[in-house]
Amino acid sequence: MENEKKSSSLGFFMNYSWYKKYLLPGFIAQSVLIAGGYGTGRELVEYFGQYGPTGGLMGMGLTFVLWAALFAISFEFARVFKAYDYRTFFERLIGKGWIIYEIAFVVLLCLIMGVVGAASGSILRDSFGLPPIVGSGIFLVCVAYLTYSGSKTIEVALSLWSYLLYAVFIVFLILGFTHFGEAISANFAAGTVKEGWQMGGFKYAFYNIAVTSTVLFSLNYLESRKEAILSGIAAALICIIPAVFFYVVMIGFYPDVLSMEIPSNGIIAKLGVKFLLPVWLIVLFGTMIETGVGFFHSINERINATLIEKRGKGMSNLARGAVGALLSIMGLLISNFGLIGLIAQGYGTISWVFFILQGVGLFTIGIYKIATQGK
User: Fold this and answer.
1) pLDDT confidence of 291, banded at 50, 70, 90?
2) pTM for the complete prediction?
3) Which domains are delineated in the chain?
4) Which of 32, 51, 147, 250 is the most exposed place for a label (fewest CB within 10 A)?
5) Minimal CA–CA distance to 38: which of 230, 267, 270?
6) Degrees, nearest 5: CA angle 253-257-263
7) What is the pLDDT of residues 61-83, one digit of tens each?
8) Buried b (16+ CB within 10 A) or exposed e, 300-313
């Protein structure tokens, strides 16, 4: 209770209902998504950049449209059925098939933690010459602490970090245009569109759509269908805008950026702005921690709901922290497979599972059940 009160006092601004309804879910989704979604820039290369500057931008437009629809339907489904953890959500949506979703969700969690671990190791190695174990240790301690602290602390931490992240991305965009504006304009003016951009946008949208499961705990503020739909569209915007900022700057280095393992490091080095690298690293590490916390908290909420159902008593804070620490270690072990391989092969495969279970499920069964629930 003390942790809950402390986090509430830190996040006094979050008492505004409009913030909780229309911005909080988006900030949580964006915080969880970015480290595994585009924090290093490698993901943007894999799913957008390889299709040409204009083709990639078109793919990002498709991703936004899909996200807006999927977030809106997911938020409304959660509101209608009061499904604020992923087990309850998918039991309501696909019945016993929720078990398949849980397996896919855990696999995705491990993949994303592998990407986070590989990225943190590469960043520390390339930037400071430090052994990867240093970054892993910081990551492990912070994730365990936040998962231990509970929902309110997580809401505040993820929201505040999103403000900092947006500020850094805006500075990054301004510096990119200041130093390489001509190259950016020239590459977009070429209008290069390569075959397959639709599939890139499609895959990117669906391997990331599992992030909705990490936001469910924050949706209990929604009170109407209009609020759920507007909140879903806002979440899609909040998630895609920093990616667009990053992508635009990356295009100033096209096609060389396609071969960079960590494009963010290479681009910052070429910008030649000394303060940007340490700030970027701090923000990126923070987003890695947020991604871990978001996914682990959704696991905790699923376990907590089951325990309350069976024995009338939920998880202790100590148990929540232990789950976070255990899953962190599991993901860090997977990071040995390498960043590029995990992103190119692991994400591409898992996106089909979420397309079938979540995408098709929501657009068919989900919409039908929402429409008939009142009747």
Assistant:
1) confident
2) 0.81
3) 17-373 (1.20.1740.10)
4) 51
5) 267
6) 105
7) 999 999 999 999 999 999 999 99
8) bbbbbbeeeeeeee
